[in-house]
Design a protein that fits this description.
This protein has 5 helices and 11 strands, in the order H-H-H-E-E-E-E-E-E-E-E-E-E-E-H-H. The protein is of the alpha+beta class. The protein has one domain: Sandwich (Jelly Rolls), CATH 2.60.120. A hairpin with a 4-residue loop joins strand 2 and strand 3. The structure holds fe (ii) ion (FE2). Fe (ii) ion binds next to strand 4.
Length: 225
């Protein structure tokens, strides 16, 4: 079944200012389109590709709501499995986040070292500290480093662009527990991806139920698919 996301053009992800306007427009519309968001989440059950790429991680879980490789973007639903701190990290890509529920302390940090490759907590000074609440929308470029301390039940829409660097990095000295988790199911992933694996069907259904219980999406019967 087609929907308006199929008509979204490819974005120029190298221009953070314009891509923020475009992504904010898409995510704001999707946050307000309960019928489509509900359908996208329910469709995952019957879409092996999106199910396989929906992942469990000790700090943040994700469902793949929409993906288009040709246009180079993916929209996820991120769900905090509890009160979690994502220690300072960067991303391989530029993304835009829109908060649907919950809240988090968001520390934008700046690197004081060479700004390349691995870093530790001593290489990154706090910059801006903000509180991200429902309705907040921001865009984060791949060179930046941030830290998020999430309330239980925090849910965000997350729209990412194409990969811009080989791998991400994290201040692992602030997350020694990473050693307690098995390596990511994907070979070659950094240590902060430890514990990452595809969702099971039961886990997917549990996440979907949480979204329904929280009032963020509808039951299947209510969306008529
Ligand atoms: Fe992040």
């Amino acid at each position: 079944m087609t929907n308006w996301l199929d008509e979204v053009p490819a974005f120029d992800w190298s221009n953070a200012r314009s891509v923020h306007r475009q992504c904010r427009s898409v995510l704001t519309r999707l946050a307000g389109d309960r019928s489509l968001l509900s359908r996208l989440v329910h469709e995952i059950e019957h879409d092996p590709k999106r199910l396989a790429e929906s992942e469990i991680h000790p700090l943040i879980n994700r469902l793949i709501a929409y993906q288009d490789d040709a246009r180079g973007f993916q929209i996820r639903v991120h769900m905090s499995p509890g009160s979690r701190e994502l220690v300072p990290h960067d991303h391989k890509y530029t993304f835009t986040a829109y908060v649907l529920a919950g809240a988090y302390v968001h520390v934008w940090r700046r690197r004081t070292d060479t700004a390349e490759g691995d870093f530790t907590s001593t290489d990154i000074q706090p910059g801006i500290v903000s509180i991200e609440r429902p309705g907040t929308c921001y865009t984060f470029g791949s060179p930046l480093v941030h830290q998020t301390i999430m309330l239980p039940g925090t849910v965000t829409l997350f729209m990412r662009g194409p990969r811009e660097k080989p791998r991400s990095h994290a201040a692992l000295d602030m997350w020694p527990e990473a050693d307690q988790f098995p390596p990511s199911y994907e070979q070659g992933k950094p240590k902060h991806a430890n514990g990452q694996r595809p969702v099971t069907m039961d886990e997917y259904r549990s996440m979907r139920s949480q979204l329904i219980t929280r009032g963020l999406i509808d039951e299947l019967a209510e969306i008529g698919s």
